[in-house]
């Protein structure tokens, strides 16, 4: 039986160079504007990654051998100094710079910052590229799904009328995930949440198009505001630590603001 894990590297690592151009590549799914791709060598599954172009820079989040690396089409020489700043915080990286692009091995904190951040600034020699990080959390989750399923794409579903899915009991006061599944991704937006309640923190979940509840890397602490990058039409649920839901599903729209009590 397969066991699902959330893959986050504990140390800087660059496990392998980019896959051979001859490797087979198949689309697994989309996560907003990110394309989730499965790569194989011959008949054997190799790894999954998320790809998209951001302001002229191609970016890939690669999950291989249980480690994350990030590749960006910022070229340079092997001797170039490389720096990575995410939301005004500098993160340690191990870099491989070529004439095709730069591959980054990240610490655990660095990968968490990529998942949760807003803007990355990558410096390679004299070149500086700014890379928007919206949608990276959802894209990383889909890469993990792709890896778990060894690149086998999900069955097609009608995103406007999601098919019922088998799921564990969602918890007291919670709707079935299939009844509040995310609709087709729309334009980029943000979900702003403020928890105006007791001292116990809450957990935010994204309800994917198949009705699965996937924990977001965002805890809601009392009197604190959390802003989550999202796409219009996505659904979210907020749970207490005992598994019970607080209120109905939250739908992301134009700069959506919610207060949880």
TrEMBL record:
Q: Which organism is it from?
A: Psychromarinibacter halotolerans
Judging by the UniProt lineage, the source's domain of life is: Bacteria
Q: Which UniProt keywords apply?
A: Signal
* Signal peptide stretch: 1-24
What's the name of the protein?
Lipocalin-like domain-containing protein
Q: Which intervals of the chain are annotated as region Disordered?
A: 149-190
